[in-house]
Amino acid sequence: MENMMPEAFHFKDKEHPSNLLSQLDGLRQERILTDVLLCTGDREIPCHRIVLVSGSPYFRAMFCGDFKESQQAKISMRGIASDVLSSIIDYVYTGCIAITMELVLPVYHISRNMWSRLETRMVKNVCAPAAVIEDKIYIIGGYTRRVVAYDIKTNKFVKCAQMRERRMHHGATVIDSKLYVTGGRYINNHNVIEDSDCFESYDPKTDLWTTKGTLPYKLFDHGSLPLICVTNKGDPP
User: Which parts of the sequence belong to the BTB domain (predicted)?
Assistant: First the structure.
């Protein structure tokens, strides 16, 4: 009689993933084996690179790509409020996040020399530039392709045509009532962050984006502005 192999029983602990996350979050809270500090404002958040890489394509691109951040022990997260960054890290470690249905934007009234708050559900852009065309404030991209405009007359936000690709840390300016967006960073199909030499234009009248070619070189975290030439010379003959 042939030897009969004993039947194998497979056991799976359904609580193991959540328990593992809980243990990792506990290590983070006690700063045990943390190997990177994420800094924003006056706050420093200790983390484990391997947890961030496993839980976020953005951090995977940052730490596994050919960027200086992959070698740094202390990283400045520019353009992200400390409470927003803290919520993102909490989500990576716990799978839970408190989502509010509105975002408070600060508005300054020059004539009254005072600030007020504008609440909206539309704006979720981070590291995104803003530009003014006539009576609307346009907020462009920011880890997304989303573009929204705030109409100061109607006190409402409206959605605009999306950019061609997700972009953050880019520049924006206005010339002849058209919006021009330059450079920035984006996450490619391999979840790697790349610098961009993209140059696009948006026409609010047609709600269309147009490619304007490429910049002479790639750049991000820069400013863009139109130049007005002034001369005291008369018109040429």
Answer: 34-101
